[in-house]
């Protein structure tokens, strides 16, 4: 009788202790945590539950790694905790923290790819971003859409490039379907090629349609495009920058891309054009302009005739040399080194 009473008392004690422990554990699991300000913590790939717990304790997000591990095993056994960068709120409970990590809703960052970069330059920009991982191959020129993309820490550079390629393919299909019927382009690839030249010729939004119109007019009239950026691409390719002014020798040196030396469009794009350049090339305004040259304000002066173009060139050369036009309003003659028929000189 005494032994039975003792066992009963012991069991009662155990049940009470377990109940109290469970009550305390549940309370600790759901009560506000120690964080007083919002905090971003990175959970690295390959981290186990205890590794995560120790990181969170070290960062002051939770009070004890033991409670995190126990809570996950007992209260959230089916939760699949994912690596990544997470933001935790002030006072967030252990239960809520586990739910946050299981959700996979990581912190998102932005990466902006400007219009007009070559694919090689795009890859270089992604390689300079230490949030991303992997070493990708350089995609085909003109297949990426310059835009601002959302990325997360640990995301692969290949994944970003694929997103850019998918976005470009989708946009290109839409623009090609809505192109002007008389644009002398045979394929979406030719549209990208023309748009890439437009993109490199001007950085001004309001000028892209005008520049596109000049090149479309020249294509229609079987005139050579004579675009300086094609000279540069023919020499340096995807590196993008010549690093010096274009010389007479450069203009006269034939390459597959030099539109002073070849008829029509080059064999492919010379950069990755943006949406505005693609739209301008697909639907240029109706003009008679065949030439353009810098006007000294960051824009260009457009002309329908060679005579007017030569006057615009002379004005630009005077601005370059810091000289004033001759009396009577007549500008000095354009230097002989400048090919008078070049639209972009």
From TrEMBL:
Region Disordered, as annotated, extends over: 321-345
Query: CDD domains annotated for this entry?
Result: MltG_like
Q: Which InterPro entries match?
A: MLTG-like
On the tree of life, the source organism's domain of life is Bacteria
Name the residue ranges with Pro residues bias: 332-345
Q: Which UniProt keywords apply?
A: Cell inner membrane, Cell membrane, Cell wall biogenesis/degradation, Lyase, Membrane, Transmembrane, Transmembrane helix
What reactions does this protein catalyze?
A: a peptidoglycan chain = a peptidoglycan chain with N-acetyl-1,6-anhydromuramyl-[peptide] at the reducing end + a peptidoglycan chain with N-acetylglucosamine at the non-reducing end
Q: What is its EC number?
A: 4.2.2.29
This protein's record includes keyword Transmembrane:
yes
One Pfam family this chain carries?
A: YceG
Q: Does the keyword Cell wall biogenesis/degradation apply?
A: yes
Query: What is this protein for, i.e. what is its function?
Result: Functions as a peptidoglycan terminase that cleaves nascent peptidoglycan strands endolytically to terminate their elongation.
Q: Which family does it belong to?
A: Belongs to the transglycosylase MltG family.
- In Swiss-Prot or TrEMBL terms, this protein is called Endolytic murein transglycosylase
Species of provenance? Xanthobacter aminoxidans
């Amino acid at each position: 009788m005494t032994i039975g009473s003792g066992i009963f008392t012991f069991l009662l004690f155990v049940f009470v202790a377990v109940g109290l422990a469970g009550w305390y554990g549940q309370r600790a699991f759901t009560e506000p945590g120690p964080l007083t300000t919002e905090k971003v913590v990175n959970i690295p790939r390959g981290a186990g539950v205890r590794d995560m717990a120790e990181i969170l304790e070290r960062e002051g997000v939770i009070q004890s790694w033991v409670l995190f591990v126990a809570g996950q095993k007992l209260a959230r056994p089916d939760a699949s905790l994912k690596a990544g960068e997470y933001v935790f709120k002030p006072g967030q409970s252990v239960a809520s923290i586990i739910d946050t990590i299981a959700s996979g809703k990581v912190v998102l960052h932005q990466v902006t790819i400007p219009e007009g970069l070559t694919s090689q330059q795009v890859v270089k920009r992604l390689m300079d971003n230490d949030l991303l991982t992997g070493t990708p191959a350089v995609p085909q020129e003109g297949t990426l859409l310059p835009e601002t993309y959302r990325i997360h820490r640990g995301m692969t550079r290949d994944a970003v490039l694929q997103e850019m390629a998918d976005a470009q393919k989708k946009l290109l299909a839409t623009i090609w379907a809505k192109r002007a019927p008389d644009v002398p382009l045979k394929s979406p690839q030719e549209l990208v090629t023309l748009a890439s030249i437009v993109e490199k010729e001007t950085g001004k939004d309001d000028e892209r349609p005008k520049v596109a119109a000049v090149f479309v007019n020249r294509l229609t009239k079987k005139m050579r495009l004579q675009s300086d950026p094609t000279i540069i691409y023919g020499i340096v390719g995807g590196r993008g920058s010549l690093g010096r002014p274009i010389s007479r020798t450069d203009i006269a040196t034939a390459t597959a891309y030099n539109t002073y030396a070849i008829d029509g469009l080059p064999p492919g794009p010379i950069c990755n054009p943006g949406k505005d350049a693609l739209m301008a090339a697909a639907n240029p305004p109706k003009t008679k302009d065949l030439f353009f040259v810098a006007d000294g304000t960051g824009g260009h002066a457009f002309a329908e005739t060679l005579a007017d173009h030569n006057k615009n060139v002379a004005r630009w050369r005077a601005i370059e040399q810091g000289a004033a036009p001759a009396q009577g309003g007549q500008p000095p003659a354009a230097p002989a080194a400048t090919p008078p028929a070049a639209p972009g000189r």
